[in-house]
Amino acid sequence: MLIDLQHKIGDYFHDVFVNNIDWWVLLGVVAQALFTMRFVVQWLASEKAKRSVVPMTFWWFSIGGGALLLVYALYRRDPVFIVGQGFGVFVYLRNLQFVLRARARGEDTNSGPG
């Protein structure tokens, strides 16, 4: 019984990660890697500053990864993914706009409300 379950699980993962690989899946993997990098750069910047900060690269990775994931979701015709990534990209662009405006005024873009 456990051996059958092990084989079924192995067959499932082989089908998902080997048989279903195409250029769109590779695009999705790259997009997800970009999206994940936003957390890595935010974490590293916060560790360096010894406080929570959101560097500009966080927003660029958010936009790049989110936009590519949106393209992937549109291709896959996944309405949940499309709505989530579409809204997310809008929010990332808006936040980047806030950061750029604050920097133009010479403000610290990593300080939150008092």
Describe the secondary structure blueprint for this structure.
Layout: H1 2-19, H2 23-49, H3 56-76, H4 79-104
Helix pairs in contact: 2-3, 3-4
Give a structural overview.
With 114 residues, the chain is mainly α. The chain has one domain (22-104). It is 81% helix and 0% strand. It has helices at residues 2-19, 23-49, 56-76, 79-104. Helix 3 runs antiparallel to helix 4. The radius of gyration is 19 Å and the shape is elongated. One of its GO terms (biological process) is lipid A biosynthetic process. Keywords: Membrane, Transmembrane, Transmembrane helix.
Overall average pLDDT: 89
What class would the helix/strand composition place it in? mainly alpha
Number of helices: 4
Relative helix content: over 70%
Radius of gyration: 19 Å
**Major sheet size, sense and barrel closure:** none
In terms of DSSP E residues, the strand content is under 5%
Q: What letter string, H or E per element, gives the SSE order?
A: HHHH
Q: How many strands?
A: 0
Keywords: Membrane, Transmembrane, Transmembrane helix
Pfam family, one: LAB_N
Transmembrane segments: 23-41, 53-75, 81-100
Protein name: Lipid A biosynthesis N-terminal domain-containing protein
Question: Features of this protein?
Answer:
single chain; 114 residues; mainly alpha; 4 helices; 81% helix; 0% strand
Task: Give a short summary of the structure.
With 114 residues, this protein is mainly α.
